[in-house]
Write a structure and sequence with these properties.
- The chain contains 4 helices and 7 strands; from the N terminus they run E-H-H-E-E-E-E-H-E-E-H.
- By secondary structure, the protein is an alpha+beta fold.
- It has 2 domains: 56 residues; 80 residues, PH-domain like, CATH 2.30.29.
- Strands 1-2-3-4 form a 4-stranded antiparallel beta sheet.
Amino acid sequence: MSEATTWQSVNSRYQLEALLHTLGASALPIALTTIPLWVDEPEVAWLSWYALAVGLGVVALVVGFIPRRVRALGYALRTDDLVFRRGVIFQRQVAVPYGRLQLVDVTRGPLSRILGLSELRLVTAAAATGVSIPGLPLAVAEQLRDQLISVAETRRAGL
């Protein structure tokens, strides 16, 4: 019935990548909350401290949650499919049957290349089952891509 699932984690360096992405994305909104501080109106200036505090609080919560979110990422190779899981509060597991794979892609952005990481993207005909596994070392992603392509070739379903 149910086979034992051996979960593989993403590389721990992905925490640094997620942290840098989060800080980069939050820099502009945090900078915008300081605009009222530039005004010499005392009635306006004290309110802007609240906006800045709320913005920094939200960023601190998101940054503090990154290690747990990265630990929740995982994938497992089973007999007939690859299962990917993610999420802490809203958890999601997606099973991608090998025979339904249409494209297996390894992508690397500039930050990922610096950290030696990559992202493996699996595409099927159904848009809802597209899976991206971030934070894989390049060698692991390429080996997994080649393995998935060879297994998918032998299990083409209805093609």
